[in-house]
Amino acid sequence: MNVLSELDPLFESPTIKPTFDYVHVLLSLFLFGENVEGIGRYRLQKELEIGAGTVKSLFNKLKDVTKFIIVPSEGKLNAGEIQRRGHVLTQKGFEFLAKVNKKILLLKKADLEYLKDIVIKQEDVNSYFCLVKKGSTKLSNGVEQRDAAIKVNGSGATCLVYDGINLFFPTKTAFKDDKDKTKINPKTLNYFKSEIEEAKVKIEKNDVIIIGSGDNYQKARLATLNAALTLF
């Protein structure tokens, strides 16, 4: 069963369908996981590039429907003063995030200096990249992933397939040998291998790297993650 199906109840409504999407849910959980001290609605609104009403609905659904987040106990500092830490992941939330992390092993800012042959437009562009485990089985030529990135106001997305030795641009046809493949330059390959090794994860044959771009880092991150969701 696709792990994303566990999020379906968040989108069930007898009246108005939520205006957030699966990518906003996933990214919010990534952010909660990175910020164990808690996140408030205003911070999440900025990170997800959505409106105040939408993020409020998302918070309520994550808290009441899936039970993925809670508000920690509020402790008084002085008379009349309340320390608010925002929302944090529940044990159930951490367990779901762990399932997602088995598929998306890494989501990180990318250095454009190493991506000159991949990201065509360099000016006013920011990039993120992620590593999707065994993603090549659902990958064609990368058009679906590019469209998914644009859908969330990103500039686009580029996919690279790892064959166990090198990274290649995807193609519709099956590879017969290395002559049929367009592989990236060694400098870029070494950059990705270094970033992946630093994150203490492992890249293996048939894994896919997705580079998403946007006119700010928030949009680039959303573009990368939404493109990755097409490979689930």
Could you explain how this protein is built, in words?
The structure is a single chain. The protein is of the alpha+beta class and 232 residues long. It has 2 domains: 3-100, Winged helix-like DNA-binding domain superfamily/Winged helix DNA-binding domain (Arc Repressor Mutant, subunit A, Orthogonal Bundle); 104-229, GAD-like domain (Gyrase A, domain 2, 2-Layer Sandwich), CATH 3.30.1360.30. 34% of the residues lie in helices and 16% in strands. It is built from 7 helices and 9 strands; from the N terminus they run αααββββαββαββαβα. It has helices at 22-34, 41-48, 52-64, 91-101, 143-151, 186-198, 217-229, and strands at 69-70, 75-76, 82-83, 88-89, 104-109, 126-132, 156-162, 167-168, 208-214. A 5-stranded antiparallel β-sheet has the order 5-6-9-7-8. Helix 2 (41-48) crosses helix 3. The chain is globular and about 50 Å long. Mean pLDDT is 89; it is low at 74-82.
Summarize the structure.
By secondary structure, the protein is α+β, with helices and mostly antiparallel strands. The chain has seven helices and nine strands, in the order αααββββαββαββαβα.
Q: How far is the N terminus from the C terminus?
A: 10 Å
By DSSP (H or I, 4+ residues per run), the number of helices equals 7
Q: Could you estimate the helical fraction of the residues in percent?
A: 25-40%
Count of distinct strands? 9
CATH topology of the largest domain: Gyrase A, domain 2
**Strand arrangement in the largest pleated sheet:** 5-6-9-7-8
Which structural category fits the helices and strands?
alpha+beta
SSE series: HHHEEEEHEEHEEHEH
Shape: globular
Q: Please write the CATH class name of the largest domain.
A: Alpha Beta
Question: Ranges with pLDDT <50 over ≥5 residues?
Answer: 74-82
As for the number of domains, it is 2
